[in-house]
Amino acid sequence: MDMADDTNSVTLKELKEAMSHMMEELGKPNLADYFPILRKIDPQGIRRRNTVTFRKLINLFGRIIDQRLKVREASGLKDDDILDTLINMMVVDQEKKEDQLDKTIIEHFLLDLFSAGTETTSTTLEWAMAEVIKSPEIMSKARAELDQVICKGNQVKESDVSRLPYIQAIVKEAFRMHPTAPLLIPRKADCDVEICGYTIPKDAQVIVNVWALGRDSSTWENPNKFMPERFLEMDMDVGGRDFKLIPFGSGRRICPGFPLAMRMLHLMLGSLLHSFDWKLEDGVVPGTLNMEEKFGLTLQMAQPLRAIPVVTTLSSTVST
Ligand code: HEM
């Protein structure tokens, strides 16, 4: 499912728009969540609009699956990517007359993967890039590490990441200050429970404010300052074991995309910083870069980052 082939494609545009609407709507405080009696009325129209968007996305994934089935029939190629793997499983199930995996399940599975995995990852990368571009000192430390470990002209590979502690620290610091899911996903208590002296009654909605955890001055020195260095001195990861920093949640329902997201983020951030010089649009200097936040289900930059990559002589040898 490589949509990067044609960045102007109608499908890609449709997908991006629908995803963005969905995130915006899902992040709005919904009166019906707090007063269940209003659920049927849907006073803000959130459920109505989301139903339309979900339907659009399901149709879009349905079209992609149909298109792929046609290509497979014409070319005979059956083993290219995750979509082929899912279709292969569907075909086996059909042959065995089992209905464990059918087209509807694949459509909904893709909806889950795209809705949970795209904006979260791209927004984290955008925040990390904005913070690095805003601070020339951090930028030059990051690039010095990359130059030393990767060497100019080479591409960053997944296997290099363990030797890039400063890049890793930037990603952690981006998660601390700008957690993409600032309130995780709301939970509901199964039964009455007492935690640290507070009683949480059965069915109460529980919201974990990870954004506030990351800005807590009793835990973090200079909490509002982007300082990747703090993570060079402490042994803390974002895998859900340390409750001071849980951008992926924790426990049984921790984000299942965590390993993939971590791989992608280090690789993308490392590659962007290693392959290009970065400058801001005319009139914007690093110090005045707008870092305001827009709260939704994901925490976006209020003013999306517009940064211009400048190909350096050495990076122009990097193949794309
Ligand atoms: C920076 C990237 C990402 C962040 C910050 C993130 C964060 C989260 C968070 C906070 C949750 C809820 C955990 C909870 O309620 O305790 C979650 C759930 C989920 N994430 Fe991610 N995620 C990211 C990337 C991904 C990717 C790449 C995928 C898949 C390709 C993915 C798939 C999912 C799914 C399917 C769930 C729902 C799990 C469930 O309900 O049990 N996420 N994510």
TrEMBL record:
<dbReference type="GO" id="GO:0005506">
    <property type="term" value="F:iron ion binding"/>
</dbReference>
<dbReference type="InterPro" id="IPR036396">
    <property type="entry name" value="Cyt_P450_sf"/>
</dbReference>
<keyword id="KW-0560">Oxidoreductase</keyword>
<dbReference type="Pfam" id="PF00067">
    <property type="entry name" value="p450"/>
</dbReference>
<dbReference type="GO" id="GO:0020037">
    <property type="term" value="F:heme binding"/>
</dbReference>
<keyword id="KW-0349">Heme</keyword>
<dbReference type="InterPro" id="IPR001128">
    <property type="entry name" value="Cyt_P450"/>
</dbReference>
<protein>
    <submittedName>
        <fullName>Uncharacterized protein</fullName>
    </submittedName>
</protein>
<dbReference type="GO" id="GO:0004497">
    <property type="term" value="F:monooxygenase activity"/>
</dbReference>
<dbReference type="GO" id="GO:0016705">
    <property type="term" value="F:oxidoreductase activity, acting on paired donors, with incorporation or reduction of molecular oxygen"/>
</dbReference>
<keyword id="KW-0479">Metal-binding</keyword>
<dbReference type="InterPro" id="IPR002401">
    <property type="entry name" value="Cyt_P450_E_grp-I"/>
</dbReference>
<comment type="similarity">
    <text>Belongs to the cytochrome P450 family.</text>
</comment>
<feature type="binding site" description="axial binding residue">
    <location>
        <position position="255"/>
    </location>
    <ligand>
        <name>heme</name>
    </ligand>
</feature>
<keyword id="KW-0503">Monooxygenase</keyword>
<keyword id="KW-0408">Iron</keyword>
<dbReference type="InterPro" id="IPR017972">
    <property type="entry name" value="Cyt_P450_CS"/>
</dbReference>
